[in-house]
């Protein structure tokens, strides 16, 4: 698989598998993602896409009610 044009990394407060499951569900429904990985242990989500803007993914994650503590888009620290 070719590498996606964009890599977004989100630092999310997730304390249980229900929390990570909620984030996983919104990313699964999101169209245009090449791949994603939600990691409960590191409380992070990595999202790979060619077309979806950073802000769109941030909003989807915030709709789960989880706190996004920090984020990067293509290695650049972004506001949350």
TrEMBL record:
Keyword Ion transport: yes
Keyword Lyase listed: no
Gene Ontology cellular component terms for the protein in this record: cytosol
Pfam family, one: HMA
CDD domains per the UniProt record, alphabetical: HMA (cd00371)
Taxonomic superkingdom: Eukaryota
Residues covered by the HMA domain: 5-69
UniProt keyword list: Chaperone, Copper, Copper transport, Ion transport, Metal-binding, Transport
Biological processes per GO annotation: copper ion transport
InterPro entries with a match to the protein in the record: Copper_transport_ATOX1-like (IPR051881), HMA_dom (IPR006121), HMA_dom_sf (IPR036163)
Coiled-coil ranges (or none): none
GO MF entries: copper chaperone activity; metal ion binding
Family statement drawn from the similarity comment of this UniProt entry: Belongs to the ATX1 family.
PANTHER family tied to this protein: COPPER TRANSPORT PROTEIN ATOX1 (PTHR46365)
The protein, known as: HMA domain-containing protein
């Amino acid at each position: 698989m070719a590498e996606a044009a964009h890599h977004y990394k989100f630092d999310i407060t997730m304390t249980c598998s229900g929390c990570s499951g909620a984030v996983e569900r919104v990313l699964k429904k999101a169209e245009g993602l090449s791949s994603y990985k939600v990691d409960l242990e590191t409380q992070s989500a990595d999202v790979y896409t060619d077309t979806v803007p950073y802000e769109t993914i941030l909003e989807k994650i915030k709709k789960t009610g989880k706190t996004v503590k920090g984020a990067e888009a293509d290695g650049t620290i972004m506001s949350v």
